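REQUEST FORM: STRUCTURE PREDICTION
Request ID: SP-0412
Submitted by: Lab K.M.
Chain count: 1
Length (residues): 399
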Amino acid sequence: MSHIRASVTYSLDAVRLSAAGEIVAARPLAEGRNMLTDGGLNELVNRTWVNLFAYFQVGTGSDPIKRDSGGITFTQAGNTVTASAAFFDALDVGRVLVLDGDGVELRITSRTSSTVAVVGGAARNFGPVEGTIHYVNRTALSAAGPLAAFSTLGTNSGAHGSSWDGVSGVFSTWVTRISAAVAANTMFTEICWRAGSSGGVVSGIASINGGAGAYMLTGEQLRVRLQLDRTIAPITPVAVPAPVVAGVNRAAWDVSAQYVAENIMLSKWNAAGVETQGALFDPSQNKNCVRLDTATALRAPKADYDYSGTMIGTPLNSQEATPQGYTANSFARDYVATYPVSAANGVWRAVCFGYENPTNNPPTVSYGLRMLFAGDCVKTADDTLSFTFRLTWGRTLVN
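STATUS: Completed
RESULT:
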């Protein structure tokens, strides 16, 4: 299993451009966090991470994106959460409660009363603590402003790019876009990101300056810089025990990110602001399983983009890992690679989960996660060997 946790930050500036398109004046308006919506996270089975943020749009509405409990506290017992005073609203069903000092998303599945709600997930006991309800099921701006959704790229130095920190496991990428000029003085109070210019899924939304908004003057243009940070796990070896299933042989292994080459790791914006598609950790992209002939010890990925040298071990057999069905709001997808009785027979010491580019001749394989068996695993012509790899993803919600 591998997991990606994403967080998005943004900054807004009002700028004026010369006739040549150069910025001649700029003033900061706001900076903050973007809330990734359920719709955006669900859409990842259809498009890349970066493609979720192809367009920006600002609005003038006042609907909130979260609601803090103030002095009201919550106590969780099993899957029931009880508030110390009236707090829950009928519209909270489908939203997410995050308790202070915890960070676990508790999706509200039903509301019994203004003080009692039922949440999904694992049953547990927690609290009493304060918390915040996040409106992750938002699907639109509450009031569209006079500016149409825009995708024009900014041209200032460093406006776009990416970086990888192999120590923390954080892959960052950023893009800058600029709107048309504002036709009249306007107070903008909310901003959203979407994959399309109109309609389509709203992948993220934020209240500008906490809802206080930002004032733009006639002739000014809005410059938006967005940074998407995705934390990849695991990047150090993790032991995976072999489950015991009657009549089925299963092997124990250790797993870690290995040669996570920057060009196939995740979608990103390059220095020109152009999307380049990733593969391994983008749920919508093709995956492959590759047998290796060596049991060389696992090691963490390098700390930067230098992935010179050869892969550890010789690739022997490559098999497409077919994506399985997706359940809304699960933020998880399985990929299954099956080697039939006629294929890949012999000793298995390690396997890579990566990406095969079928357009190359012959097809080339890029490697990401390497799994090392606890001992040699032998496949014979009597065996069918199947690997199920689960990719999960999520967001960071800040109270």
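NOTES: Confidence is low (pLDDT under 50) at residues 306-310.
Reviewed by: T.R.
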